[in-house]
Structures are given as C-alpha cells and as structure tokens.
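Re: the 334-residue chain
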Amino acid sequence: MWKVLGFIQKHLVWSVPVCMVAGIMVGALVDPAALKALIIPLTFLMVYPMMINLQVQEVFSGGDYKVQLVTQLMNFGIVPFFAFGMGKVFFADQPLVSLGLLLASLLPTSGMTISWTGFARGNISAAVKMTVIGLILGSVATPFYAKWLMGAVVEIPLASIFRQIVIIVFLPMLLGFVTRVSLIRVVGERQYHRNLKRKFPAFSTLGVLGIVFVAMALKAKDIIANPMVLLSFLLPLAILYAVNFLLSTIIGKLFFNRGDAIALVYGTVMRNLSIALAIAMTAFGNEQGSEIALIIAMAYIIQVQAAAWYVRFTGRIFGPVLEVNPSLTHSASH
C-alpha cells in the first residue's frame, strides 16, 4: 500500500490528469450528484495529514527575518495582483475562472515547499517558517483579497469562506498538532521522524486526487461540450509560474545566499493548491465551486513539473553547494 501511495505522490504530474479524465468519464456516464457528499471527507483527508508534520513552533526560532519578510511581500504584494491581472487579460468573460486563478495565487507554500527546498539543497529551516507563515497569513487574507479584487463581479461569501477556513485549515492544524504530540509520546521522536512522518503526505495526495475527481465529474457535461476549456488554462498558468520563478530567482541571486535564495524561490512559487481547492469546493456551492476548481486542478500539472525541472537547474542558477571539509575545519581551529 505504501509503495502505491508513494508512487502516486511522486508522479502527481500524471496522477492528476488521470483523475481528471476519470472524473470527466464518470460524470459523463452517470449522474455525479451523489459525489457531492464526498467533498467534506475528501477535504479533511487532503488537509489534516499535511498538518500533522507542520511545525508551528519553528516560526519563533528567528535568525532569517530578511528572507521571511521578502518572501511574504512577494506572496501578498506581487503574486496575487499579477494573477488578478492575468485573469483580467485571459478570462475577462469568465469571472469564476479568474477567481480560481486568484485563489491559487493567494495561498502560498505547501508541504512540497519544504521538500523541493531540500531536494535543491536550500535552507530547509527557512522553508519551514515560510510554509507556516504563508499558510496562516494566506488563510486570513484570502477572503479579504477575494472580496476586494473580485467582489464586483462574483458574489464572495465572506462569512462562508471564513467558516470553511476555520474548518479546513485551523481545525486540522490543531488536530495535527495534537496528533503529532500524541504519536511522539507513544512511539518516541526518533521513531516518529524515521517511520511515520513521511507517510502522512501520501494520504493528503489521495484527498487531492479525490477532490479533483469530484470537481471534474460535477463539470463533466460542460467540459465535454467545450473540451478546449481545460487547455485554455495552460498558457496563463504557464505564464504565471514562469514570471514567478523568474522574479524570485532574480531577487534570490541579488540579495541572498544560495540556501536562502532557494527557499525564497520555493516559498513564493509553490502555492497551496490543496487548500485553494478545498475553499473553492466548500465555500462557493457545488456548481460555482466546480468551475472555480477547474483551473486550480490544472495548476497542479504546471506546478509539479516546474518545481521538478527547477531542481535540475538549481546548480547552474545558484552554483554548487559548498561542502565544508571537516579536516580543514579541524586544522583551522588549532
């Protein structure tokens, strides 16, 4: 089972499209209305496991204030407004799609922010803080940004969004903290980090794929009537991610060391698409939520591919990791 879950998680770039196609096929063949009952449990399955490994206490360790500040300035002062502008250009007559693009840009960092930073040999401690800070700020700010930028063309249910954020972000965050503390007490910290910690994200992946499947099934008839609609999302998403990667790379190279620069890139480019999907599917009703969710689901394909390719070119962009020779360090101390 773990091998299957691990395989699915590592190959999200293929798993997501497969679930999208499966959802469209099911929605075309049978009435998908019964699937609506799965939205809340799938949302919980998607968010709760990722919260178990979230180390909120890391925020208070300090020491990298500059990169943390610049990261959040980009996350909330640049990226959402660029996404809003992209929505205006590409989806002027599709306000719900524009809102989906905005939601995808408003919730920075995911658990993969930490993973990709580690793969690229960046500052993992900084990435952990970015993940926690970005998640909390994004959860609080999203309803206000959505109302401010899209409230004129889409009815933004502020109370409903806040209620859903409490249910799908802060409640799982609390339960995740209790779960982690309880597990460490039972099995010990060493056993938890060695065997249990890496298993939880795989369950989140199942929740993601389930939500994508349901969203596609609910919109299947509309998609089949206009099959080019999904492909039309790829270009604006590609531009959004490309500009984000370029901007964060330039700022990282100019102002930060290698480790902090890599954390900055993944702390600003990776978006918490899982929570964006959850908000779309729970706060806006099934019909609107499914339409908003379409572009968020497509963003997974671009995000995973882009993050993986960026790791491959990290050495060329930021240079190799400087390994410290222990013998030289020992000599220097004498």
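Residues 147 and 156 are 6 Å apart (CA to CA).
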